[in-house]
Automatic annotation (TrEMBL):
This protein's name: Enoyl-[acyl-carrier-protein] reductase [NADH]
Enzyme class: oxidoreductase
Enzyme Commission identifier(s): 1.3.1.9
GO annotation, biological process: fatty acid biosynthetic process
Described purpose of this protein according to its UniProt entry: Catalyzes the reduction of a carbon-carbon double bond in an enoyl moiety that is covalently linked to an acyl carrier protein (ACP). Involved in the elongation cycle of fatty acid which are used in the lipid metabolism.
Molecular function per GO: enoyl-[acyl-carrier-protein] reductase (NADH) activity
InterPro entries: Enoyl-ACP_Rdtase_NADH (IPR014358), NAD(P)-bd_dom_sf (IPR036291), SDR_fam (IPR002347)
Gene: fabI
Catalytic activity: a 2,3-saturated acyl-[ACP] + NAD(+) = a (2E)-enoyl-[ACP] + NADH + H(+)
Pathway: Lipid metabolism; fatty acid biosynthesis
Length: 255
């Protein structure tokens, strides 16, 4: 097993222990990395802090960062710079769309809902990369999370599919832009996982069942599998890979 000892990573988007960001945090923690966590608003600090205390390593730095607010993002990375100086990577595990726009007719998507989904789920990667870049003085790796619904039409994913397509292309433009600084930018396209975001999706059980029946590996994706894929993308082992989307979805995307 390789080690990430002495390396520092920022994890954005832990809501609770089911979050994919938490799977990533656990994999990086096991590899000996130093972790910094960001959460959306002050009221989320306590639950995230309680979770972080269960990790093997001691990770003290938790900061608020609402990605819709430029000043918040700048202040967050300024503080990280002051506290640790250099970072080696960042996991962007953030998305949001209005519940009412995640079912029904896509043509009913509102202007406000369209812009909100793109602001939080897509533009946030670019603004975060801009502020993380000066801290990646020895190169770095940025990893975001995407879903198949950004490549092809998946029932009810609706506005999130369009936002993920924008996110996927942002990964490629950012990879091209930041590659000269030895900063790599990649996405993991995860299979469906029951997280807080997935809560309220009415037919989630049937989505999971379809994967069990049809995906090449005949099983659903786990938080740990995505965590270990991120670990690879954050490690020296993936040093030649940028602008890529790795599907960690039991192979479902080939069907
Ligand atoms: P979670 O609900 O656990 O995580 C979503 C996170 O987005 C939360 O931590 C939430 O923060 C954060 N967030 C929302 N709005 C903002 C904001 N304005 N500023 C900062 N953070 C914000 O769900 P997942 O782990 O499932 O989602 C993580 C990523 O994985 C998303 O990009 C999602 O699209 C993607 N993904 C998920 C799949 C799944 O099946 N679950 C499949 C493929 C991709 P807070 O709680 O503090 O509001
Ligand atoms: C095809 C599907 C099922 C239908 C679509 C689901 C889309 C989910 C993604 C978005 C991000 C979920 C979302 O924004 C939920 C919010 O409206 C309400 N929830 C919240 O506000 C909670 C409290 C917070 C923590 O959530 C966020 N996001 O801040 C897709 C599924 C098969 C796979 C999937 C679930 C993909 C994905 O992108 O997450």
């Amino acid at each position: 097993m390789f080690t990430l000892e002495g390396k520092t990573f920022v994890i954005m988007g832990v809501a609770n222990k089911r979050s994919i960001a938490w799977g990533i945090a656990q994999s990086l923690d096991k590899a000996g990395a130093n972790l910094i966590f960001t959460y959306a608003g002050q009221r989320f600090e306590k639950p995230v802090r309680d979770l972080v205390e269960t990790l093997e390593g001691k990770h003290d730095l938790l900061l608020p960062c609402d990605v819709t607010n430029d000043e918040d993002v700048k202040a967050c990375f300024d503080e990280i710079g002051k506290r640790v100086g250099k970072i080696d990577g960042l996991a962007h595990c953030i998305a949001f769309a209005k519940t009412e726009e995640l079912s029904g007719n896509f043509s009913d998507t509102s202007r406000e809902g369209f812009l909100l989904a793109h602001n939080i789920s897509s533009f946030s990667l670019t603004v975060v990369a801009k502020h993380a870049k000066p801290l990646m003085t020895e190169g770095g790796s940025i990893v975001t999370l995407t879903y198949l619904g950004g490549e092809r039409v998946v029932p009810n994913y609706n506005i999130m599919g369009v936002a993920k397509a924008s996110l996927d292309m942002s990964v490629r433009y950012l990879a091209n832009d930041l590659g000269q600084h030895n900063i790599r930018v990649n996405a993991i396209s995860a299979g469906p996982i029951r997280t807080l975001s997935a809560k309220g999706v009415s037919d989630f059980n049937s989505v999971l069942k379809e994967i069990e029946e049809r995906a090449p590996l005949r099983r659903n994706t786990t938080q740990e599998e995505v965590g270990d894929t991120a670990l690879f993308l954050f490690s020296h082992l993936s040093r030649g890979i940028t602008g890529e989307t790795i599907h960690c979805d039991s192979g479902y995307h080939i069907l």
